[in-house]
Amino acid sequence: MRSHSYDDVLATPRRTRQIPQVPAENGLVVEDAAGGFCGAVVRCEPDGVVLEDRHGRHRVFPFAPAGFLLDGRPVTLVPPRPQHPRTPSRSASGSVRVDGLRARVARGSRIWVEGLHDAELVERVWGHDLRVEGVVVEPLDGVDTLADRIADFDPGPGRRLGVLVDHLVDGSKEARLVSTIHHEHVLVTGHPYVDVWQAVKPASVGIPAWPVVPKGTDWKSGVCAALGWGEPSDGWRRVLAGVHSFRDLETPLLGAVERLIDFVTE
Predict the structure, then answer these.
(1) CA 136, CA 23: separation in Å to the nearest integer?
(2) pLDDT interval class at 106 (50, 70, 90)
(3) pLDDT per residue over 120-179, tens digit each?
(4) I want to staple 104 with a disulfide (CB 3.0 to 4.6 A). Which of 110, 134, 256, 263 is the partner?
(5) How far apart are CA 53 and CA 31, in angstroms?
(6) 39 with 52: CB under 8 angstroms?
(7) Crossing angle of helices 232-241 and 116-133, rounded to 10°
(8) What's the rounded Cα separation, in Å, for the pair 231 and 184?
(9) CA distance 129 to 194
(10) 214-223 — which CB contacts under 8 Å span 24+ positions?
(11) 243 DSSP assignment
């Protein structure tokens, strides 16, 4: 005899329809599935969502499962995720980074530094800030002719000059040269280190301290010989690779450069 059961043993189980969850973002237009009230989300409350219809009327509806229609299809509204304020990113100097930066047209003002290594170090830490301000940094290759270079530059209003000098300590050659500079549109600052390498914290380049180099010996060559770094060009690559932000530099250099940037951008 044939069975009188009408169940099809080969049929697959009916799939339960999933109702999508949609964040109740402001401006989202939905319809109350039970009563037909249609409006845009204007705000969320602890237990429900407030809709505003085209006549400006407000009504509050609970966050019920499948409680709304979106484009004619049932949805479950849920509170949107809270928006946490974005922490602004910082440049290597610690200033707020400007997203999508396009370098400003260069000012007439300039910052001069003694050599190429000084310029590269300033660029590594303050490059973003300088592009925001439109300030160009130029290496001098020493300060022996500083007074003549300043006269040729002819500083003035809107054409200020900042100069960063190595080994600016009492009694040094650099201090004697700087003492002759007197100009309202020129600011000379410096640091006490023999070379700008020394303004990088030793820990940042993986050494306990900078070696003491005997007088009469080229400082960079003496450092590289003591540390086994090869030629000064090899040593400089090590030094620069250890600098990622202002935290890798000693305070005297930080203060000197910040003062120059402030001066030429006033």
Answers:
(1) 49
(2) low
(3) 999 999 998 888 888 999 999 888 899 999 999 999 998 999 999 999 999 999 999 999
(4) 134
(5) 10
(6) yes
(7) 30
(8) 41
(9) 26
(10) 219/194, 219/195, 220/195, 223/197
(11) -
